[in-house]
Predict the 3D structure of the following.
Amino acid sequence: MKLSAQVTGATSCEFSSNPTIAGLPVSVACSNGKVKTTVTVPSSVATVIETYRFTLTVTGASGPEATARAAVTEGHGGSPLAGVVSVTGGGYSYCALLSTSAVVCWGSNYYGQLGNGTTGGPDRYGYDSPQPVTGLSDAVSVSSDDDYGFCAVLSTGGVDCWGYNDFGQLGNGTTGGPDGEDGYDTPQAVIGLSDAVSVTSGDYYSVGSYCALLSTGGVDCWGYNYYGQLGNGTTGGPDGDGGYDTPQAVSGLSDAVSVSSDGYEQLNSFCAVLSTGGVDCWGYNNWGELGNGTTGGPDGQDGYDTPQAVTGLSDAVSVSSETDDSFCALLSTGGVDCWGDNYAGELGDGRTGGPDGEDGDDKPRAVTGLSDAVSVSSDFIGSFCAVLSTGAVDCWGLNAEGELGNGTTGGPDGDYGYDTPQAVTGLSDAVSVSSNGNYGFCAVLSTGAVDCWGYNYYGELGNGTTGGPDGTGTPQAVTSLSDAVSVSSSNNIDGGYCAQLSSGRVDCWGYNANGELGNGTTGGPDGKGGYDTSHPVAAA
């Protein structure tokens, strides 16, 4: 491959590559005019496509550094995964729904969460390339419990789940399992479901519940129920070790259109948006996260075991949450109302803490200045970001690692962050925003490029670096991505992302200790145990 650049007044020129190619850097003669060299890329083991970035470092020139990019092949165990419809991550693992309606998974498999009939794997605790989930051929969507399991909604309206099952969260009438060490390593049919539309999890750190939205507008939940998070009028349960191992109807719900959860350890709550624009919530309520004007509850041990109407909401379009006990509702007006924990200003109304709710507010508060939001997402730790109709992005809340993207860390107010929305520097064409749950966000742009900001210890910004040049956070372009459709993450404490591409391929970057990047390796040559540029997931 030939590389060239135009320089003026240069005293030295040197080509280098990332990842490194043997024989580079290459020093070449230069002064004025065109500088060129020929690079031979690795070809002995042609498998997964990987993008190499070549840089010309120039000394004494009036012009900037010149860069060239090229797609070449590297030995990672197979051609790229193709035909991907969606990607879902959770707990050091990912699952991809394919156009064939089959599902493949990769990464950590300690509890059988890859669904391929094994636990563990040949690569550390799992598999570093996709594994077909046993027997699934009619999946329409996949969701994760954010820790050790997955569920697939089937074309029949049934639901199959696999992975960890200590609290009955697989919904098959058992706890634990005959295999998978406390779980099942193949899909299990959730008992009695035949009209599920979607599934949402309240799991985080192994203690979990699922809720299925039904075509009737009802909601059925199963799993852990210590705080009444199944919404059936009870706490605990007769089976499932503190819960129910079969679906339970949430009391009184008949017109739900979506369900979300704040899912932090066992302290989780669920909220359902209703067809009327109202929102009902149930479960843990110590910080007022049910939004009904109370903290704790008369039942459910620190919460409510039946749905509670969120005070004053009548035009909600969707609800999002972060795992530290706050919810935000996107309104039909483009405004955003938030309630619950507010220690870092995550309610966005110009305050931290609150008059009630123990460091929060138990009723919705309008986020200051927002009137044209089209979506809201969270990093699950203490920050929210809203995509605006203009393509700009505003973020508020915790800013410990620059996750608000405004060029600062911490903040002048909001106790560790900002308690009002901050414009993310330089973004004007964002389509969507997602987080890896570890002090950072990524935005898919209208061009198909992806910009990320925040924490970068494992290369989770995908810009060819780890760490950062200073203590500030501003968006960084993920190297070589130009056709991304969406970005998802495994929502773990270490961090990483996978981008679904318009070609049907999946590219991943960041932490890779368990093979969660799916490129046929564990760890990586860069990123302190991962990859700091995007790499294709290998074929199953």
Q: What stands out?
A: Residues 43-49, 64-77 have pLDDT under 50 and may be disordered. The longest strand covers residues 49-59. The radius of gyration is 24 Å.
